[in-house]
Amino acid sequence: MGSGHITADYVPDGDDWLVTVTTGADRRTARAPGLIAARDQADQFIEQLAPSKAGRVVIHLLDGDGFAFTSAYLQARHGLSDETTRSAVAAATGHARGGR
């Protein structure tokens, strides 16, 4: 995995999250019962696809948006409710797409 990068894209799906991890030609997808669980699943896929951390670059996105993922993940990681996390997702994606 000396070149390129790994992309982990998270998409809310009702109460669950879909995560797709992509590296070049490899792609793995899973469903998880929350953003933290989805991130854990992504980490497992990343270890399978690129076991060596040397030179590994991972980009985490929420429906294609890095800022939105970071905002939502920090909300979830700090123990805020799923509803608060969904609100952060909506605000971050709306802001990033010029919705504000």
Number of helices: 3
Roughly what fraction of the amino acids lie in strands? 25-35%
The helix/strand series, from N terminus to C terminus, equals EEEHEHH
Please state the average pLDDT score.
Answer: 83
Shape: elongated
Poorly predicted parts: none
Query: What structural category do the secondary elements indicate?
Result: alpha+beta
Strand count = 4
Supply Rg. Answer: 14 Å
Strand arrangement across the biggest beta sheet: 3-2-1-4
Distance between the termini: 39 Å
Q: In this structure, how is the largest beta sheet organized? A: 4 strands, mixed
Fraction in helix: 40-55%
Can you put this structure into words, describing what you see?
By secondary structure, the chain is α+β, with helices and mostly antiparallel strands. The protein contains 3 helices and 4 strands, in the order E-E-E-H-E-H-H. Strands 3-2-1-4 form a 4-stranded mixed sheet. Helix 2 packs antiparallel against helix 3.
Helix-strand layout with pairing:
Layout: E1 6-13, E2 16-23, E3 26-32, H1 35-49, E4 58-62, H2 66-77, H3 82-96
Parallel strand pairs: 1-4
Antiparallel strand pairs: 1-2, 2-3
Give short descriptive properties of this protein.
100 residues; alpha+beta; four-stranded mixed β-sheet
Short account of what is shown:
The chain is of the alpha+beta class and 100 residues long. The protein is 42% helix and 28% strand. The chain starts with 5 loop residues before the first strand and ends with a helix.
